[in-house]
Design brief:
Two copies of one chain form a homodimer.
Chain A lengths: L14 H14 L8 E2 L2 H8 L3 H13 L3 E4 L3 E4 L8 H4 L2 E3 L8 E11 L2 H7 L6 E11 L2 E11 L8 H6 L4 H9 L3 E12 L2 H7 L6 E11 L4 E9 L4 E4 L9
Antiparallel strand pairs in A: 1-3, 2-3, 4-11, 5-6, 6-7, 7-10, 8-9, 9-10
Helix pairs in contact in A: 1-3, 2-3
Chain A binds a DNA duplex through α3.
Chain lengths: 251, 251
DNA sequence: AAGTGGTCTAGACCACTAC
DNA sequence: TAGTGGTCTAGACCACTTA
């Protein structure tokens, strides 16, 4: 019976919420890592001093938030970002006929800079704090359609290098998870029309200042802290942005 | 013990799923209408021949899908679309500074026509089936920013008239619910850039063929049947489309 | 066969609302 | 005070996975 994880019954509302918070804390502390199995429900119920039913309610919510994944007969796992799994949860560009494909990513540039007041506010960091900024060109069906400009606080991604970004073998969010223990659990996105910059128009093979769909994204970690700021620009001549919940076959 | 609502234990998977389907059927049949309270959990458990826990699990899912709403001490209610409640669940246009406001709606035109093959496919009806088409201009902060063109199958909305649309006092989806018993429970949306038509440019006070954000929406009813097809066009100079889940204060 | 999560039960007690 | 939903329990039994 671990004293660290026993919870007061009086604070924070209900038992299962307390259990949920304790599990989020354990996940944030990387006690269990992406893709790993967590202890059985019986063990966790003992550890937290609650009944199985209560423990299950906490896990129910974590599964609904796609932080954990249950597999009957196997166990409960820490959700992992993978190209072949939850990729289309965050990548919402599809061809107009509905055809979905994985993008071929090319790193266009990478630099270290300092956060402007605007970016700092979005990321909840101090103005002037060190920042990584890099741009990816994403090709679908052999044609560049999407340009991502990604901004990451150095404090959250220490020692990130251009080489690490080039050598990653899976998705960006999988990389954040494996290399930095950062679990992206949700995003806020706002869409509007923008005009293609010179670099963008060149990569997208459209005229300068052509209208493109801009997506401003803030990605949040397990503890609801912003960890990534991203501006995406999409050529929607043949593709579009799909906003709704995917059906079960979201994969 | 009603024989109508007793369910076979063998079919359709699990007990609570069966209960959920039976409740969806009762809602579709308008046994309980929008805004009304449904029977207590104890009564429903007796009616369906399951324990309270099982009945609760069915209701849990219906609440998660925003079909029902629980109020402790009061009862469980059929969710109702209301300007002051779930309005921003489906209206996703906000000013760039984040300010949200209710649109002032003006009905621009209304006509009866027949479904093209394309529209018919989207609505799951037969090509050439009778259709209502109407256009609304939506003003935010005193300025027209959004143009909605809405298409409704006559078979689903019999005897709809222009007057009914003008005289409605709450939201469109509230009107569908009260006047036709149609509960919109979800939408699919796709976004892309389009060019303003002559009418749109006039209403939006922008040049003809200016780029506008187009949102193509299919709205689904309780039984997952498409009930509305809508093309929205947004001037994103001062406003934007917010794609992410709202926080709890979504109202 | 052993271990896992999935479902279901039959209650107890608590918190909130209305009268 | 009575009735509602909200939480929690301690188990039983089922279905699935691995060995």
């Amino acid at each position: 019976m671990s004293t660290v994880t026993v919870m007061p019954t009086s604070l924070g509302g209900t038992r299962y919420k307390e259990v949920k918070e304790a599990m989020l804390a354990a996940l944030t502390a990387q006690e269990w890592k992406g893709g790993e199995v967590i202890p059985s429900e019986k063990r966790l119920a003992e550890r937290f001093g609650v009944s199985i039913g209560t423990l299950r309610k906490a896990i129910d919510e974590l599964c609904a938030e796609k932080i954990l994944i249950r597999h009957q007969g196997l166990g409960t796992f820490v959700a992992q970002h993978r190209r072949d799994r939850h990729f289309f949860r965050f990548f919402r560009v599809v061809r107009r006929d509905g055809e979905r494909t994985y993008p071929a990513v090319t790193l266009v540039n990478f630099k270290k800079t300092k956060a402007s007041a605007l970016i700092a506010a979005k990321l909840g960091i101090e103005s002037g704090a060190r920042l990584f900024v890099f741009t990816n060109a994403l090709a679908l069906h052999g044609k560049v359609v999407v340009i991502d400009t990604v901004m990451l606080p150095e404090a959250t991604f220490p020692d990130l290098t251009e080489t690490m970004l080039r050598d990653r073998t899976d998705t960006l969010y999988n990389f954040y998870q494996d290399a930095f223990g950062i679990n992206v659990t949700g995003t806020d996105e706002r869409l509007r029309i923008a005009r293609a910059s010179e670099l963008e128009s060149e990569l997208l093979k459209i005229d300068v200042a052509s209208p493109v769909l801009e997506v401003e994204r803030i990605a949040y970690s397990l503890n609801q802290k912003p960890v990534e700021y991203r501006l995406t620009r999409i050529n929607t001549e043949e593709y579009e942005y799909i906003a709704s919940k995917m059906k079960d076959g979201e994969s």
